[in-house]
Write a structure and sequence with these properties.
Layout (H helix, E strand, L loop, with lengths): L13 H18 L2 H7 L5 H20 L4 H19 L6 H12 L4 H15 L3 E2 L3 H23 L3 H22 L1 H6 L2 E2 L3 H7 L13 H6 L3 H24 L3 H24 L12 H12 L1
Keywords: Transferase
Pfam families: SQS_PSY
GO biological process, one term: carotenoid biosynthetic process
Length: 300
């Protein structure tokens, strides 16, 4: 996908490690993600570990969001399951898993979190995505964001109990913000992450219609969905507040990167709430100066 040949065997040489770092850096720098700014504040080797983790997440997410048949995308994700297996056998065979190999040992990264993230990407790769209820939404958020939160917190050095709780609060808040921000883009891909059980409450006309939610764009056009979106935003805001308490217990060096991630996404959520839910075509983004200001505030 990124123009680097895939090896069929383990990669171990110093030259391969240098190539892997350059490969990972290209992915991270090309992403233009807010996470890049937070990751840059980390010292080495934690920064390199986070860059490798981000590159892994970026690749599997790009597969799920890519063009082509669902079966082809799922086959590509199965290839990444195999690469994760090889990584945890001590035989990484891809530049990104080579970059992750030292982090797996140094920070006791859990294979189950990588596997669960791929599970979430396989859901995204399906030709039609619907979540039946809040439990399905919570499971999706845990697989797509809680997993990354737990892996990231391990790299940051956050103690296990706090790491799990922080992944559950901050990770879910970040993912709900993503869902709200990308509603129309996802709808165009026939994805609807708003729980159907709750939608039936807010949209009574859909309660007895088996096809009421077949067209996600029509769902978003219904004015009654606004109250549900307000409720999801309130939940995310409450989770951001809960994460503040957990972050306050951590040493500054462990809390700095997650605080910045929180600041970026909380600002996006606040902006969406203030302007309302009708401007689907222009999801709010933070500009470079705004991101720089947040970073400087975090470092001060």
């Amino acid at each position: 996908m990124y123009g680097v040949a895939m090896s069929q065997g383990p990669l171990h040489s110093t030259a391969a490690e240098r190539d892997a770092r350059r490969y990972i850096d290209r992915i991270v720098r090309g992403s233009r993600s807010s996470f890049y700014w937070a990751m840059r504040t980390l010292p080495e080797p934690r920064r390199g570990a986070m860059f490798a983790l981000y590159a892994f997440c970026r690749i599997v997410d790009d597969i799920a969001d890519g063009d082509g048949a669902s079966a082809h995308k799922i086959a590509q994700l199965e290839d990444w399951r195999d690469r994760v297996d090889q990584l945890f056998r001590g035989a990484p065979n891809h530049p990104v898993t080579l970059g992750l190999s030292l982090a797996v040992d140094a920070y006791a990264l859990d294979k189950a979190d990588f596997v669960a993230l791929i599970d979430a990407m396989e859901l995204d790769a399906a030709p039609r995505v619907r979540l039946e209820d809040d439990r399905a939404l919570d499971l999706y958020c845990d697989r797509v964001a809680g997993t990354v939160g737990r892996l990231s917190n391990a790299i940051f050095g956050v103690p296990n109990d706090t790491a799990r709780r922080l992944a559950g609060t901050l990770g879910t808040a970040l993912q709900i913000t993503n869902i709200l921000r990308d509603l129309k883009e996802d709808a165009k891909r026939n994805r609807l992450y708003l729980p159907l059980e709750t939608l039936r409450t807010y949209m009574p006309k859909g309660a007895g219609d088996a096809h009421a939610f077949d067209d996600p764009l029509s769902v978003l056009a219904d004015p009654s969905v606004t109250a549900m979106l307000d409720g999801l935003a309130l939940r995310a805001q409450a989770l951001f507040v809960q994460s503040d308490d957990l972050l306050a217990r951590l040493p500054r060096n462990q809390a700095l990167a997650p605080r910045m991630m929180k600041a970026f996404y909380q600002r996006v959520l606040t902006r969406m709430v203030r302007r309302g839910w009708r401007r689907w075509d222009t999801p709010p983004r933070l500009g470079t100066m705004e991101k720089t200001w947040i970073v400087m505030q975090g470092l001060s």
